[in-house]
Specification:
Blueprint (H helix, E strand, L loop, with lengths): L6 H7 L12 E9 L2 H17 L11 E6 L2 E7 L3 E8 L20 H5 L4 E12 L21 E5 L4 E9 L5 E7 L4 H22 L1 H27 L6 H47 L2 E2 L6 H92 L1 H4 L3 H33 L1
Helix pairs in contact: 4-6, 5-6, 5-7, 6-7, 7-9
Length: 433
């Protein structure tokens, strides 16, 4: 029995990125770096540099995921298609005399190493996890010292086994903050909850990368649509005298417009497609939270529905509009190209008719020339017959003029039959090709 060469790889894919075990209390720092293909490889080298300096096990070559305990901090490193994420988890209890979120978990790792992380930071989050009873129990608790009370969002999640609070704003330290109040639950389940929160924020920002592009494309699409309307007006107003010439010029304009539209479509299609996929992931993660409202607060799902959904509809509308414009330009190009081809065919038909008339005239002229040729050949041949009988008159006793006259119809008939035979052979040879 032979296993498929990809069996092991495909089987392990479902276990490729397991959830972390997170107890309570816990502090989590999460950063997402947008990277190019080259920077993605640099991020892997950068990770191995840190682990090598600390004499820790190195990840497998071309690894997409790695976790390692670095002193009091657990580092979770993940590499995706266009971003690399770093999650730092510590279960150290924050000092009572220090503000919440004063010291992110990532500070336990070398500041110089963190400063040299490749890529551009798109998303940065801090999550504080507390067990039930560690914070005030009023509903909702007062988090005004670390969260914006006017933008506070909160909900009971995972079947009311935890509460999540956030303002979805970037704080003075550059991080978006989440507070999780957890009832007794397994560390795996708490890890899944935290992972979903981080993924919601990550995929939300990745989806929104398409919004500036959609706004940038809007005036361009307006201009392209106006150009298309102008071209259609020209097509509808072409005069009878110069249809073909104007159609050729219009087709050149339309071809240039089609090239421009297809170039813009090719440059933006991948971003809009990715935005739709990320938005779908956001909705799935929000559904996985199984939110229940807390009195006086919007749930995370409600907030995203009000703020994120319109932005995604703008992106989807720009993508649909771009697709529709491309299809309209294509239809218009086909219509105009058909019109030009019909005009060319009409010209060709007229040219062929003119050639047929010329050929007919040439044939008549040729027939006239052939008639003259028969007369000329008959004349010369009859003259030869006359001279022949003049030389033989002493023996034949036939008058040369009489012999010459009798030979004329015979010679003319033979010449005419020879020409007809030659025409017949030429026709057979032409049909044989």
């Amino acid at each position: 029995m032979t296993d498929h060469p990809l069996r092991q790889q495909l089987h392990n894919e479902i276990h490729a990125r397991p959830y972390e075990r997170i107890g309570a209390p816990a502090q989590i720092s999460h950063q997402v770096m947008l990277v190019t293909a080259e920077e993605s490889q640099q991020a892997f080298v950068h990770l191995t540099e840190l682990l090598s300096n600390l004499h820790l096990p190195l990840p497998a070559p071309h690894s997409m995921f790695h976790t390692e305990q670095i002193g009091p901090v657990r580092l979770r490193w993940e590499r995706h298609g266009e971003f690399v994420s770093y999650t730092f988890i510590t279960h150290e209890r924050p000092a009572a005399d220090q503000p919440l979120f004063a010291h992110p978990a990532c500070e336990r790792v070398s500041a110089d190493w963190r400063a040299r992380i490749p890529g551009q930071r798109l998303c940065a989050n801090q999550v504080a996890v507390f067990a039930e009873g560690e914070l005030p129990v009023e509903t909702p608790p007062d988090f005004s010292a670390v969260l914006d009370a006017d933008a506070l969002v909160g909900a009971e999640v995972t079947d009311a086994n935890a509460q999540v609070y956030t303002d979805l704003r970037i704080g003075p330290d550059g991080y978006t903050r989440f507070i999780v109040l957890s009832k007794p639950m397994s560390e795996r389940r708490r890890g899944r909850l935290v992972q979903r929160l981080l993924e919601i924020e990550t995929y939300r920002l990745l989806a929104l990368l398409a919004l500036p592009l959609a706004r940038e494309l809007t005036p361009q699409l307006n201009r392209y649509e106006q150009d298309l309307v102008g071209i259609m007006n020209v097509i509808g107003s072409n005069g009878a005298d110069d249809d073909v010439q104007r159609d050729h010029q219009t087709l050149d304009r339309l071809t240039q417009l089609a090239s421009t539209v297809e170039g813009v479509y090719a440059a933006s299609h991948a971003r809009f497609t990715a935005a739709a996929a990320y938005y779908d992931l956001v909705n799935r993660r929000v559904a996985d939270l199984r939110e229940a409202p807390i009195f006086g607060l919007q749930t995370l799902g409600q907030f995203l529905e009000r703020r994120l959904a319109p932005a995604m509809q703008t992106c989807a509308w720009a993508a649909r509009r771009q697709q529709a414009l491309s299809e309209r330009v294509s239809r218009c190009s086909n219509l105009l190209r058909t019109r030009v081809e019909v005009a060319i065919q009409q010209q060709n038909r007229g040219l062929l008719a003119s050639m047929n008339r010329r050929q007919s005239l040439q044939l008549r002229l040729q027939q006239t020339v052939e008639g003259l040729s028969v007369a000329a050949i008959t004349y010369y041949m009859a003259s030869l017959v006359g001279h022949l009988f003049e030389a033989a008159e002493h023996w034949l006793h036939i008058q040369p003029k009489l012999a010459e006259g009798i030979s004329i119809p015979i010679i003319a008939l033979l010449v005419w039959l020879g020409l007809q035979r030659m025409h017949h052979r030429l026709q057979q040879a032409s049909e044989g090709r």
